[in-house]
Every structure is written in structure tokens, then in C-alpha cells.
Amino acid sequence: MDSTASASLASLWDEVSGTQPDPDLWVVIATLVAALIVVVPHGLWRLSRNAITIAHEGGHGLVALLTGRTLTGIRLHSDTSGLTVSRGKPHGIGMILTAAAGYTAPPLLGLGGAALLATGRITLLLWLATGLLVAMLVMIRNAYGALTVFLTGGTFVVVSWLAGPQVQAAFAYTVVWFLLVGGVRPAFELQAKRSRGGAGDSDADQLSRLTHVPAGLWLFLFHAVSLCSLIGGGRWLLEL
Asked: In angstroms, how far is CA 158 from the centroid of its own chain?
């Protein structure tokens, strides 16, 4: 009995951690086009931005935990805004890293996903994403947020368990392209809001108060991380 269970677990791990064939180049390009279609037009971006908000707030939450803060809850709103609340010292490196993690999380997750896809680990990427979404669901504190994360996680589960290798590959590449491309736009939106005198309590402004570094420099960091991730991740995905 134990040997059978051990063999099953070993087989499952081999399947998850193993490599899968790379999709054809036309599939990679088609998934890039699909990501651009849901990011560039304003109407579609209003819907797809919810997924970027999940990554944004998830980044706050994960770094809060990693730096020893107590994560008390995450809320996602229908206007694509979000709020992550953690307890701990209101200053110091933990608070700074937590505040900086929001705008940098989507592109960095995309970069990490591109690294996995470049090594053919499509199944591992899908399972890791599913695990992160399940962990995040536990910390959601409002109905809209719970529904959004549940549906997103459910999509990953269905694709991971029921779809064939080609569909899994296309889905994984679309998700990673979306994180890379979609991770660029929020920093520009924040910059535009601040230029109009809005978003006075943005992550950049909070970081400015925590570090006495101008908010504009934090915005530059957000731009640099997202654009460098897009360039680096894109090269990996296209195998340039």
C-alpha cells in the first residue's frame, strides 16, 4: 500500500516537474497577439485588469509574509482596485518591500513564468500558479474578490487536469505574455493619475513617505522592472 502510494506520488512529481515540448513559433506569436488584444483596448483592459490586480495584491501579501509581517486580509474590488492589509512595524525594510511588491509583482511573475516556459516546464507553471491562487483565496475578505480568484483558479485547474498538451501550452504562454505586457500598463496609468493630481496615496507615495525618496523615482523603478521584464521574458519566450 505504502509502496503503491509512493510510486504514485513519484509519478505525479515526475509529471509535474518534467518538461513538455515547446509549441510552434506561430503559437507563441499568436498568444502574444491575444495578450495584446486584451491589454491595449481600454474596454477589454477594464475587464482583464482584474487579473493584474490579483497579481498586484498577491505580491503585497506574499512579500508581507516573507518579511515577517502578519497578513490579515486581501480585498479585490470591481473597479480593479485592491487592498492588502498586514500588521507589523509601520516602517522599516519589511514595510518598504511589501509596498514595493505590488506594481513589480505582475511583471516579475511573468518573467519567472517565461523562465519556466523557456525550459519546457509548462505543467509546473500551471500547478504553481494554481497553488498560489488557492493560497490567496484563503486570505480574500470580500465576495467579489473571492469570486474573481475562485474563477481564475478554477480556470487553471480545468486546463491543468482536462486540457491536452497543446491547449495547456497555448494557455500557459498566453498567461505569461499577459503578465509581461499587462504588467507595463499600470505604472503608466499611475503616472498619468499623479500628473493630474490624483492617486495621492498610491504605492509610490507610500514608499516616498517611508524612504524619503521622491515618488517619481519609485515610479521610475516600477517602469524599469516592468519594461526589463517584458524585454527579458519576451526574448526567452521567442527564443531570441
From this structure: 19
CB-CB neighbours of 14 under 10 Å: 9
The length of the chain in residues reads 240
Q: For residue 86, what are the contacts with CB-CB under 8 A and spacing of at least 6?
A: 60, 61, 64, 69, 70, 71, 72, 98
Cell representation of residue 138: 484563503
Place of cell 474563477: 151
Q: Are 146 and 154 in contact (CB under 8 A)?
A: no
Enter the C-alpha cell of residue 220.
521610475
Spatial contact of 61 and 84, defined as CB atoms under 8 Å apart: yes
pLDDT digits (tens, 9 = 90+) for 25-67: 999 999 999 999 999 999 999 999 999 999 999 999 999 999 9
Q: In angstroms, rounded to a whole number, what is the distance separating the alpha carbons of residues 22 and 32?
A: 15
Residues 6+ apart with CB under 8 A from 64: 70, 71, 84, 86, 88, 94, 98, 101
Segment 94-110, tens digit of pLDDT: 999 999 999 999 999 99
Judged against a pLDDT cut of 90, whether residue 223 lies above it is answered with yes
C-alpha cell at 33: 497577439
Rounded-to-integer distance, Cα 57 and Cα 161, Å: 27
